[in-house]
Amino acid sequence: MKWRLMVWGMLVLLIMLPRVRVTAQDTISLQWSLPLPSLKVTSGFGHRIHPVTHARDFHKGVDLSARCDPVLSVLDGTVVEIAFNPILGRYVRIDHGDFQSVYGHLSFILVGNNESVRAGQPIAITGATGRVTGEHLHFSIRFRGRHINPIYFLWQLQSNGQSPQINKQ
Ligand SMILES: [Zn+2]
Fold it and tell me: Fewest CB within 10 angstroms: 31, 42, 79, 127, which?
């Protein structure tokens, strides 16, 4: 008789699962994700001495420690640019309405231009393309065209939304 209960259990789960997801999405105001499975900042936002040129420089994003890691879209959005430049290397820009996120120095890109992506969706694999001393993810956020500190942005998401925890190392 046990297997019958299991079959019924599975059926109930299969029927319930999509509904549970819908109600979960209704109650969570904002779906978001960290840009990497765990965060370790190796170079912060703002004025700094550039690690390659040794010149004064304004760092428009943060550098995050990475090693062949999946890069995750921080919010739902649309891929608006996939390109290469000598500084950022291979990069992806995603539009989220008022915000845009950029992920640089990538090795592989897993999405296409104009593709819709979800928060937490893997969009690329980290790498060391462009002007770098070693592998890392350059992550930046623009709010209505102006670069803002991506760490404050993530903290803001964390206090507004739920789930992902910033892994402070
Ligand atoms: Zn950087």
Answer: 42
Computed over every residue of the chain, the mean pLDDT equals 85
The whole-angstrom separation of Cα 165 and Cα 98 is 23
Q: Report how far residue 40's alpha carbon sits from residue 23's, in angstroms, rounded to the nearest whole number.
A: 33
Digit-coded pLDDT (tens) for 30-49: 799 999 999 999 999 999 88
Question: Which CATH superfamily, name and number, covers 25-160?
Answer: Glucose Permease (Domain IIA) (2.70.70.10)
Report CA(5)–ligand 1 centroid distance (Å): 55
> How many A from CA of 63 to the centre of ligand 1?
5
CB 63 within 8 A of CB 45: no
**What's residue 89's pLDDT?**
98
C-alpha 158 – ligand 1 centre gap (Å)? 22
* Structure confidence at residue 52 (pLDDT): 83
Every domain of the chain and the residues it spans: 25-160
Q: How far is the CA of 9 from the centre of ligand 1 (A)?
A: 50
